Backbone:
């Protein structure tokens, strides 16, 4: 009986020790310290612009008879405004008659030329008479082409009495009202393409050499981060501010006129040991991280923070590439704590 009791007590003690040991192990999420090329950055204010933002003007004179409202979205080729074309239509009818008359003259002279050519073979008409008729035919043909050209001009003016959208876009401003008389060149509307935009940002001269065409930069809008590609760098300052213009193509459409923040490097990038920002433990003015050794024991390391880029920062201290760094659960740890690790998953 004593042997049985002793065996049961021993088993209970072993189970208790195992449960205690398991209870001391803290679950954490770790990420690997890596060598990354980082550069210190600064945020510059930029503005979203439409690549197609134009003021559309009247191409002929006329009274405005119709115009769309501000905010109207149009497809390429749809009418924005219409001018009265009554006089142009009347001119067209008159010119059609002129063209018909000239065509009749040409037809008549052609018949005369053919008849005189036949009579000339039998010496029934003088050569000079045929030559004169051929000259008259050439003049009539020239007059007909001139009349046809004037007709084409009138028809083109009729066509241009409708002001059409040159691309898909939105009317953002109207400068005239129905009933006004417009002269050639008078602005009618401001027309903006909302689907083709870019970001304009002005940067300091010393930063020009730190970015290149096709460089990818971070853009911040309403606490949301996205990216944009540099597509144009103007290598000359255009005003007294000594700032240089850079234009970027954003990955997401941004409404024209929206202010954004663009993260730009202000010194050259270099290779550093980097860790995820979530690994930082801030206590009483010191910055520390926990790294997990081969025995799954958490070691607390005091570090200094260097340059950063997005979620990753330079760690200056007893941290090497390949170290497992705690990024979740570190606030509950103490040096020497046993941990159970899972791997951190993020877009690096």
Residues:
């Amino acid at each position: 009986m004593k042997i049985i009791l002793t065996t049961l007590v021993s088993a209970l003690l072993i189970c208790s020790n195992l449960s205690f040991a398991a209870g001391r192990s803290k679950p954490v999420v770790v990420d690997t310290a890596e060598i990354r090329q980082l550069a210190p950055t600064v945020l510059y204010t930029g503005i979203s612009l439409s690549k197609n933002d134009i003021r559309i003007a009247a191409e002929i004179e006329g009274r405005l008879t119709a115009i769309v409202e501000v905010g109207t979205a149009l497809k390429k080729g749809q009418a924005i405004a219409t001018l009265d074309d009554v006089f142009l239509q009347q001119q067209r009818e008159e010119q059609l008659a002129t063209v018909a008359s000239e065509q009749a003259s040409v037809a008549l002279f052609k018949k005369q030329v053919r008849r005189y050519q036949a009579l000339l073979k039998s010496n029934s008409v003088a050569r000079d008479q045929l030559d004169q008729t051929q000259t008259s035919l050439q003049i009539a043909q020239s007059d007909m082409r001139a009349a046809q050209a004037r007709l084409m001009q009138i028809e083109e003016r009729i066509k241009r009495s409708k002001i059409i959208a040159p691309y898909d876009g939105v009317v953002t401003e109207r400068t005239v009202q129905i009933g006004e008389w417009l002269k050639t060149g008078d602005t009618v509307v401001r027309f903006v393409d909302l689907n083709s935009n870019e970001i304009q940002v002005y940067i300091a001269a010393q930063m020009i050499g730190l970015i290149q065409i096709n460089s990818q930069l971070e853009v911040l809008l309403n606490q949301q981060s996205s990216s944009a590609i540099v597509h144009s760098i103007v290598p000359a300052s255009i005003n007294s501010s000594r700032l240089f213009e850079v234009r970027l193509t954003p990955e997401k459409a941004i409404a024209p006129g929206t202010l954004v923040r663009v993260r730009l490097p202000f010194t050259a990038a270099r290779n550093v040991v980097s860790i995820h920002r979530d690994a930082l433990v801030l206590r009483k003015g010191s910055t520390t991280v926990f790294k997990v050794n081969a025995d799954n024991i958490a070691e607390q390391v005091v570090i200094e923070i260097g340059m950063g880029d997005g979620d990753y920062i330079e760690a200056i201290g007893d941290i090497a590439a390949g170290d497992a760094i705690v990024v979740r659960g570190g606030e509950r740890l103490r040096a020497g704590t046993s941990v159970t690790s899972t791997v951190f998953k993020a877009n690096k």
About this structure: The chain has three helices and 23 strands. The longest strand covers residues 298-309. Residues 1-23 have pLDDT under 50 and may be disordered. Helices lie at 2-24, 86-121, 127-160.
